């Protein structure tokens, strides 16, 4: 019997943490559960995951798994996506309060209004949207595949929702199409400024700069490389410099260090989750919450069948086009 008081998640010692991780793995095996975690999750959560990835990678994994239970360590829209692409599975969310501020910046009603105003446009929804929004969209994209997918679309007008930064980045690469871009944004990424990037470049003149496309266009302009989380991992761990300034959520540092510990990865501000590029909702999922959720099969993601059917189309279209 596992005796740890799981509500004391912030005071776990090293041995307690290790014991809890072993218990989570044991439970997952007993219940035929797969644990999926985003790169921005806490290191101790990443360590118990069967698969770690960005939004596109996790969407693919969720659609392919033969596990009975999916424990999704990510924000709410990610859990919804897992349920949409694999509706017969039990999808559990360790912290149902972990939503995405960007996803909440647009509603299905907003999308329907945009479609009325631009009947010749095709709605391209960033995967960082809630299920109801996906259900009224034409195709989903991630930061890894957005440019490629928009280039393949027949429509000459693109209604891009909800991220203005990613929409502007895609527009740069697809100049032959007209864009209507919703003015949503990722608060942590959008807070980082070009002035701060310049300061880091001056402090580390030999470093390359890798930036996530959810950042402000002025920050993107200063980058040596712009890409999704997984693309940043590949670039930062293989580029020809020993130092890389990484402008994205600081949780990625853990993966980078595991992939190539011989490089120095410089994140904005402090490295202990106190920097400006910090996703509070991602970090709200803790190892004790993962344990409780799996043990008692809590926080099951439930979506109406109609929403699942309608939202599945743009997601499957994304997977096919990417």
From TrEMBL:
User: Superkingdom of the source?
Assistant: Bacteria
Residues in a coiled coil are 10-37
Q: Which residues bind [4Fe-4S] cluster?
A: 100, 186, 279
InterPro entries reported for this sequence: NadA, NadA_sf, Quinolinate_synth_type2
Q: Write out the entry's keywords from A to Z.
A: 4Fe-4S, Coiled coil, Cytoplasm, Iron, Iron-sulfur, Metal-binding, Pyridine nucleotide biosynthesis, Transferase
Subcellular location per UniProt equals: Cytoplasm
The EC number of this protein is 2.5.1.72
**What GO CC terms are in its UniProt record?**
cytosol
Pathway field of the UniProt record reads: Cofactor biosynthesis; NAD(+) biosynthesis; quinolinate from iminoaspartate: step 1/1
GO BP annotations of the record are: 'de novo' NAD+ biosynthetic process from L-aspartate
Matching entries from Gene3D superfamilies are given as: NadA-like
Keyword set includes Iron: yes
- Cofactors: [4Fe-4S] cluster
Reactions mediated catalytically: iminosuccinate + dihydroxyacetone phosphate = quinolinate + phosphate + 2 H2O + H(+)
Known role: Catalyzes the condensation of iminoaspartate with dihydroxyacetone phosphate to form quinolinate.
Q: Which family does it belong to?
A: Belongs to the quinolinate synthase family. Type 2 subfamily.
- Spell out the protein name for this chain: Quinolinate synthase
Q: Which organism is it from?
A: Hydrogenobacter thermophilus (strain DSM 6534 / IAM 12695 / TK-6)
What gene does the UniProt entry assign to this protein?
A: nadA
């Amino acid at each position: 019997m596992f005796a740890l008081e799981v509500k004391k998640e912030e005071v776990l010692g090293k041995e307690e943490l290790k014991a809890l991780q072993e218990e989570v793995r044991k439970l997952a095996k007993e219940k035929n559960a797969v644990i999926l975690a985003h790169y921005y999750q806490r290191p101790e959560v990443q360590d118990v995951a069967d698969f770690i990835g960005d939004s596109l990678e996790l969407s693919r994994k969720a659609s392919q798994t033969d596990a009975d239970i999916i424990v999704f360590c990510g924000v709410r829209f990610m859990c919804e996506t897992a349920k949409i692409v694999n509706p017969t599975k039990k999808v559990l969310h360790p912290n149902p309060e972990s939503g995405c501020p960007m996803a909440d910046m647009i509603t299905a009603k907003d999308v329907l209004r945009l479609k009325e105003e631009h009947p010749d446009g095709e709605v391209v929804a960033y995967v960082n949207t809630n299920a109801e929004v996906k259900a009224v969209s034409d195709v989903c994209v991630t930061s890894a595949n957005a440019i490629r997918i928009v280039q393949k679309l027949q429509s000459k007008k693109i209604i891009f929702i909800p991220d203005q930064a990613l929409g502007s980045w895609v527009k740069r690469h697809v100049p032959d199409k007209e864009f209507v871009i919703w003015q949503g944004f990722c608060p942590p990424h959008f807070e980082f400024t070009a002035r701060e990037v310049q300061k880091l470049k001056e402090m580390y003149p030999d470093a390359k700069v890798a930036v996530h496309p959810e950042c402000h266009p002025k920050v993107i302009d200063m980058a040596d490389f712009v890409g999704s989380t997984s693309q940043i991992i590949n670039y930062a761990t293989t580029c020809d410099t020993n130092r890389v300034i990484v402008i994205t959520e600081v949780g990625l540092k853990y993966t980078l260090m595991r992939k190539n510990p011989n490089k120095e990865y410089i994140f904005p501000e402090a490295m202990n989750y106190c920097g400006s590029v910090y996703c509070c909702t991602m970090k709200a999922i803790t190892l004790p919450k993962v344990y409780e959720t799996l043990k008692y099969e809590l926080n099951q993601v439930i979506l109406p069948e109609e929403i699942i059917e309608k939202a599945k189309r743009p997601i499957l279209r994304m997977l096919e086009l990417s």
